[in-house]
Amino acid sequence: MTDWLNAVSIIDIVSGTLTPLTSGFMADCPECSPDGQRVLFRRFGNGSEEIWRQRFDRSDAASALH
């Protein structure tokens, strides 16, 4: 079960469908990339915070920015 308060989700404004983009870890502060292809978000885990990115279409795995 997803904890919606700790996940980044996408809402389809036409259908109203809410789809989780992240799961399995706490994430917040989503921001759209300038090209509109990715979402950047803050991820929490193991006592640290990192900025991660994920394609909106989930065609690749989320990755940390370094």
Word description of this protein:
The chain is mainly β and 66 residues long. It has one domain. 0% of the residues lie in helices and 47% in strands. The chain is built from no helices and six strands. A four-stranded antiparallel β-sheet has the order 3-4-5-6, with no helix packed on it. It is globular. The N and C termini lie far apart (30 Å). The mean pLDDT is 85.
End-to-end gap:
30 Å
Biggest pleated-sheet summary = 4 strands, antiparallel
Sheet with the most strands: spatial strand order: 3-4-5-6
Structural category: mainly beta
Topology order in helix (H) and strand (E) letters: EEEEEE
Helix count from the secondary structure assignment: 0
Q: Which blocks of ≥5 consecutive residues have pLDDT under 50?
A: none
The backbone outline, from C-alpha atoms, is globular
Arithmetic mean pLDDT: 85
Q: What quaternary form is this?
A: single chain
Domain module count: 1
Please tally the β strands and state the result.
6
Helicity range of the residues?
Answer: under 10%
- From the alpha carbons, calculate the radius of gyration and give it in angstroms: 12 Å
Lay out the secondary structure.
Elements: E1 9-11, E2 18-20, E3 26-32, E4 38-45, E5 48-55, E6 63-64
Antiparallel strand pairs: 1-2, 3-4, 4-5, 5-6
